[in-house]
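Readers of this paper often ask what the protein records in our data store actually look like. Below, we set out a record of this kind in full and without editing:
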Amino acid sequence: MAETSTTTTTIPPPLPLKIIAGADSFGCSLKDALVSHLRSLNIEVEDLGTSSYYSIAAEVGRRVSAASSTPSSPTPDIRGLVACGTGVGVSIFANKFPGVFAATCLSTADAANSRSINNSNVLAVSGMATSPDSAIEILDTWLKTPFKSPCPASNSTPWSAELESFLDNSLSEMPVIGAKDSNPKQQEDESGNTSACALCCLVKNRKLDPIEIIPGGAMKIVRESPTSAIVSFKAGSVEPAHHHTFGHDLVVLKGSKRVWNLSKKAKYDLGVDDYLFTPAGDVHRVKYFEDTEFFIKWEGKWDIFFDEEMEVAKFEIEKEAEDGFELIK
């Protein structure tokens, strides 16, 4: 009897999975429950903790984006998990980064559809609307559903060849949408007019009031509590060391500055589009190298407490080479 030879096709195992997680205060409990579940499945998790919904989602989105833009064979399949009160805000800000496809999922059907149709790589969940048990079911469905697999949107049957082709093409077409507008500083439209980000337009149309206690500064509060404001300083201006009751996020819209965080023995050089979070109570000093504008949001109502006189601040800045601070760029 002749022997029959068979050829076995070995399917390579999927890349190991890593999840980058973060939440705001409304989603932190749910995020913690999901992180524990992921670790029980032996999935690597990098937990970024808790911050404002836009800050934490942006950081998760930034890291997932960086992983998707520089793939290599040993690199794990890196996805994100974000949570806030509704799951909507974190999804919006994670999606600011190229290659990120964040989906807010309130049901297992949402999770399956987002993976099958959109190849979602960031799961956003609601801390107010979803129980831990339901969220675990949503997460498990999201983890186990491959791209183009049968899902509720396909009536749980395979996609037609025509729709499969559409989905395949979407993987290359979606990431380039908006690529020509990727320079956030300024773009020209077909009529020759210039367009800028929403914050820049906000600055353009508002008159800033002088900050009497800090020469060279001006500010326009756009929301009282938690306080949000547009702030400008003239080149050469100095903010003496000070602290606030509440932490604050800021984004530089124009110009450049250096921030010394005296509490952390660190200094930061910031230019256009750079972001910095300063925790509540951290003492910090600032020098402006050119006319500078930035958007700032405190976690509560704005206040300021000075920790040194202006002349002391200028003296310390002049001898900064001796300060021993770590420069973080």
Summary: The first helix runs from residue 28 to 40.
